[in-house]
Amino acid sequence: MSELRFAIVGAGAVGGYIGGKLAANTITHGLLGATGLDNTHVYLGRGKIHRLGVKLGAEAVAVGRAHGYELGTILGILADDWYAAGARENAAALKRVQDGLTAWMATLLEPSHSSVGRDVMRGRRSEIDFTNGLVADKGAEAGVAAPTHAAVTELVRRIDRGELKPDPSNVDHIPA
User: Fold this and answer.
1) How would DSSP label each residue in 160-172?
2) Type and span of the H or E element at 77
3) Residue 19's domain spans which residues?
4) Is the dihedral of CA 53, 54, 55, 59 positive or negative?
5) Is residue 138 part of a domain?
6) Do the domain assignments include residue 44?
7) Residue 43 placed within a domain
8) Domain harbouring 42, CATH code
9) Between these two residues, 19 and 134, which has the higher pLDDT value?
10) What pLDDT, on the 0 to 100 scale, is given for residue 5?
11) Beta pairing partners, 5
12) Cα 123 from Cα 51, distance rounded (Å)
């Protein structure tokens, strides 16, 4: 199914819009599913969960670009800033990402757990293979590393199989 999804979307501006939506979802889906936390830890916190969210955003940008997507903004933040912040290349870009995430959170009525987080909490099989798993797979296909996507995908798959429970310590082994 993931192959069909990418084939329909295609590259260019329309694909970039849809790819940007996918990138936005992958910033929180796997992390919140694996940890049981809500999105304030990614958007407002400045700890490890936040740093992993920034890396997920940067990896998604790299994978999208490798497939020809013209990515604009993701959660109101320029794709270039996500990439530079995730690669730790630019303190100013990281500040713009952090300020943008704070502004994005202010638009939400309340914190949320993402659809993957809600699936995990309710004991349902999650859609992780169609979000973070898709980015990891497409990264491998293009020769672009997306190790953070692969790691959170595997954690959520283990939760889906009943091998783990959501817990913030699940991501301790993932480099931030």
Assistant:
1) HTTS----GGGGT
2) strand 77-78
3) 10-171
4) positive
5) yes
6) yes
7) yes
8) 1.10.1040.10
9) 134
10) 40
11) none
12) 27
Which neighbouring-strand residues pair with 69?
Answer: 12
β-bridge mates for residue 77, sequence order: 74
Residue 74 has pLDDT above 80, yes or no: yes
Q: What's the pLDDT tens digit per position in 87-114?
A: 877 899 999 999 999 999 998 888 888 8
> Do the domain assignments include residue 2?
no
Across 154-176, average pLDDT: 96
Give the Cα separation of 57 and 21 in Å (integer): 11
Cβ(166)–Cβ(31) below 8 Å: no
Q: Exposed, middle or buried by CB within 10 Å (0-12, 13-18, 19+), for 91? A: exposed
SS3 of residue 52 by DSSP: helix
d(CA 43, CA 45): 6
- Compute the distance between CA of residue 26 and CA of residue 29 in angstroms, rounded to an integer: 5
Q: How far apart are CA 153 and CA 92, in angstroms?
A: 30
- Residue 1 has a pLDDT of 35
pLDDT in tens, 109-152: 888 888 888 888 899 999 999 999 999 999 999 999 999 999 99
Residue 118 is predicted with a pLDDT of: 87
| Number of C-beta neighbours around residue 135 at 10 A | 30
Residue tagged 């809500």 (tokens):
38
Number of domains in the chain: 1
Residue entry with tokens 């990264």: 139
Question: Which residue in the block uniquely carries the two structure tokens 């955003």?
Answer: 57
